[in-house]
Amino acid sequence: MKHLTFLSVLMVSYISTSIAGDWCHLPRKAAWGYDRNSGKPVFKTVEEAKAACEASEECGGVGLDRVPYTVGGVTYTPTIYLLSVKDAARDPYNNHRYDTYLKGAC
User: Fold this and answer.
1) Which tens digits make up the pLDDT trace of 9-47?
2) Kindly report the CA angle at 9 between 5 and 10, in degrees rounded to 5?
3) pTM for this prediction
4) Confidence at residue 37, expressed as pLDDT on a 0 to 100 scale
């Protein structure tokens, strides 16, 4: 029974990953920072940003900046934003402030 439960969880994880698409998580790496004057949207969660990114052909990934961002009286901690295909294609550099999630497998 124990093995069957593990196998069921494994299958559900595989199916949900296949449906949601593959993402390459690059911890402590920055592809491109968020321009706070751009007016581009920020998100409350990485999952919410990934869903928005998957719905757009122009999105190449999701960036996470640990520095909070306040807009319209709402503070986003951390700052989570979308990366364009061009920005996501840059060589990510080491930076403790950021995490980067790129569309597709690593």
Assistant:
1) 333 333 333 345 799 999 999 998 888 888 889 999 999
2) 115
3) 0.76
4) 84
103 closest CA partner among 53, 32, 64 = 53
Give φ, ψ of 38 to 5 degrees.
Answer: -75, -25
In whole angstroms, what is the distance from residue 62 CA to residue 25 CA? 9
CA–CA gap between residue 46 and residue 30 (Å, rounded): 15
88-99 b/e with 16+ CB inside 10 Å = b?
A: beeebeeeeebb
Residue 54 is encoded by which pair of tokens? Answer: 């998957």
What phi and psi values does residue 89 have, to the nearest 5 degrees? -80, -10
Whole-angstrom Cα distance, residue 88 to residue 56? 14
Residues 41 and 82: beta-carbon distance below 8 Å: yes
